[in-house]
From TrEMBL:
Residues 1-274 form the Deacetylase sirtuin-type domain. Substrate binds at Y69, R72. NAD(+) binds at Q103, N104, V105, D106, G221, T222, S223, N247, P248, E249, A265. Residues 143-157 have a biased composition (Polar residues). The lineage of its organism: Bacteria, Bacillati, Actinomycetota, Actinomycetes, Micromonosporales. It holds the Pfam family SIR2. Residues 159-175 have a biased composition (Basic and acidic residues). Its EC number is 2.3.1.286. Its cofactor is Zn(2+). This is NAD-dependent protein deacylase. 2 residues (Tyr-69 and Arg-72) present in a large hydrophobic pocket are probably involved in substrate specificity. They are important for desuccinylation activity, but dispensable for deacetylation activity. NAD-dependent lysine deacetylase and desuccinylase that specifically removes acetyl and succinyl groups on target proteins. Modulates the activities of several proteins which are inactive in their acylated form. HAMAP family: Sirtuin_ClassIII.
Length: 274
């Protein structure tokens, strides 16, 4: 089933008692937070994931990695929830047994009023000790970097001709030393899930449980290529739920979905929630 207008999808949502809203970076794109894999503007089109988003990268160059995450944290702080985030919160109001499962490390769902989104890939705002995940770090506000605020790690999307140059060699000004854990002295690291790391067990289990039990799963703004998160819509489909996708582009999830709405989060979701 393919739908251009969201009317049919809105009806399906209106009949649902249990909804899962599964979101990816496209959810926050219209708030000005870059996605990962979009051509030219995506983070991985501009920066080398292996040098920035793996445990090995942090071990090799913690100041580089911490500085990059500080820059991203500053960008998110400046962003505001978009009408898509507000529509998700409205769906939660209408259908109390709605669970928001997000791959995003920003806090825009929370700021839009979503109750308790499940963060499968952690959070920019929950740094932790590298030595022991049980040592939560005090929020290292002191590191709210001048370089992050002043726009170093420049957004190269403004200069598309450079956007595919991943060599973007960071200079010393972009490096920020991470603080040390006050309990054991080890480095504090960003509280996100890097490639090769396990997802938080409780979050993944709660997401699978919600996907198994829902009537409708709405997947929004994800390329559906990163596992195990990309299993969540598939789990719902296998359990018999109706799966609705909102994305301006085709994705590998198209075949899993009952309805594919080609549009943006801020453009389509308000009509679904009305
Ligand atoms: C719009 C829009 C608008 C635009 N409106 N839409 C080979 C095969 C299979 C798997 C693997 C493999 N090799 C390695 C793996 C495993 C790996 C993986 O899946 N890799 C694939 C890339 C191949 N996975 C892992 O490593 C995971 N861990 C793991 O497997 O652990 C195993 C283990 C078990 C036990 C012990 C130890 C280990 C971890 C994955 C962690 C992912 N981390 C990141 C970074 C988080 C931190 C940070 O932010 O820096 O998570 S990567 C990045 O991708 C981020 C995202 O959450 C994730 C998904 O991306 P997302 O959200 O889908 O964004 P995009 O950019 O891809 O897509 C945006 C979409 O929006 C597009 O479709 C646009 O069209 C759309 N869009 N504007 C609506 N306005």
């Amino acid at each position: 089933m393919e739908s251009v207008l969201p009317a049919g999808a809105a009806e399906l949502l209106g009949q649902a008692r249990r909804i899962v809203v599964f979101t990816g970076a496209g959810m926050s794109a219209e708030s000005g937070v870059p996605t990962f894999r979009d051509d030219l503007t995506g983070l991985w089109a501009q920066f080398d994931a292996e040098r920035l988003a793996t445990p090995e990268a942090f071990a090799a160059d913690p100041d580089l990695v911490w500085g990059w995450y500080e820059w991203r944290r500053a960008r998110v702080r400046q962003a505001q929830p978009n009408p898509g985030h507000l529509a998700v919160a409205a769906i939660e109001e209408l259908v109390p047994e709605t669970v928001v499962v997000t791959q995003n490390v920003d806090d825009l769902h929370e700021r839009a009023g979503s109750r308790a989104p499940i963060h499968l890939h952690g959070s920019l705002f929950a740094p932790r000790c590298v030595g022991d995940a049980a040592h939560p770090a005090a929020f290292p506000d002191v590191a709210t970097s001048q370089s992050a605020e002043s726009g170093e790690w420049q957004d190269q999307s403004a200069e598309p001709e450079k956007a595919t140059d991943k060599s973007a060699e960071p200079d010393e000004g972009r490096r920020i030393a991470p603080p040390c854990c006050t309990r054991c002295g080890a480095l504090v690291r960003p509280g996100v899930v890097w490639f090769g790391e396990a997802l938080p067990e409780a979050a993944l289990a709660a997401a699978v449980e919600a996907a198994t039990a829902c009537d409708v799963l709405l997947t929004v703004g994800t390329s559906g290529v990163v596992y195990p998160a990309a299993e969540i819509p598939r789990v719902a489909a296998r359990a018999g739920a109706v799966v609705i996708q909102v994305n301006p582009e085709p994705t590998p999830l198209d075949g899993v979905c009952d309805v594919n709405l080609r549009g943006t989060a801020a453009g389509v979701l308000p009509a679904l929630a009305a």
